[in-house]
Amino acid sequence: MSAKQQHNNILLAIIGFIAAVVIVGVIGFFTLDRTPDEIQGEVEVSEYRVSSKVPGRILELRVKEGDYVHVGDTLAILDAPEIEAKKAQAMSAQDAASAMSEMAQNGARQQQIQGAYQVWQQAKAGAEVAKKTYDRVQRLFNEGVMTAQKRDEAFAAYKALEAQEKAAKSQYDLAVEGARKEEKKAAAAQVARARSTVQEVNSYIHETVQVATFEGEVSDVYPKVGELVGTGSPIMTISIMDDMWGTFNVREDQLNGMQIGTEFTAFSPAFNKDIKMKVYYLKDQGSFAVWKATKSNGQYDLKTFEVKARPVEKFEGLRPGMSLIIKK
User: Fold this and answer.
1) Which residues of the chain register pLDDT less than 50?
2) What is the pTM of this model?
3) Which of 113, 189, 254, 255 has the fewest CB within 10 Å, making it most exposed?
4) CA 59 → CA 51, 62, 79, 81, 159, distances in Å?
């Protein structure tokens, strides 16, 4: 074989190798680069915690985890004897305030009024006698028979009994009139205060029976029967199954078509079905979230956004924690 033929063979081999590399590169470009990106999310649900305003001991749990409850269903009953004692005290205070108010409104009893009247009449009679005595002494003084000393003594006795008669008349008038308006208002205010205290204690007693305020499923029950729970301590968690959504963490370069109000399709591995969803929430996750540099020198970064979307139609069997896949 000549040198020229060898050179041509080597050149053909190089060209063939380059062609193979180019073909492989083209195939890789149209296959590997076409692999769709997948965004994985998770189903979430609204929850609320059941708790009491008053401390107590768990007397009874009417539900267990997994039960479905409706509005008004009894969930738990607490034993709080201290609240019952406070109610007895509040009721006693209310009765006492009511009695004082009735006394102020009704005024003095008839026997008291009659007694004050008799004292007034007695003082009145004494004053009349003292007036007559003074008049006689004054005439005798004018005739020169009685000394000035005796006349002054008679006058002083008359004035003292006259003042005593006026005081007795005031006591009688006070008994007839009864308490002043200010005293009646004060007594009525004490009754209202005692009544509001009773209402407050009754509201605390209502807290010993916990009922469902929303329809949902019992997801967690924390204390056991017989355990103590403090004020505001959670007793159980209720999941509102009618308020369910999917949460996705999406880089901003993948947000195309995922603005608020737009619809997209997510795949549910649990049911091997697609679910049509509508975006209702979109917010960046801040500097603490995962980011990706667009270039090796990090000229700018791609931030991550939290996207929330609800199913367009109700999807039976969907549970919190299930995965949702979006293929971009």
Assistant:
1) 33, 291, 293-296
2) 0.56
3) 189
4) 14, 10, 6, 12, 77
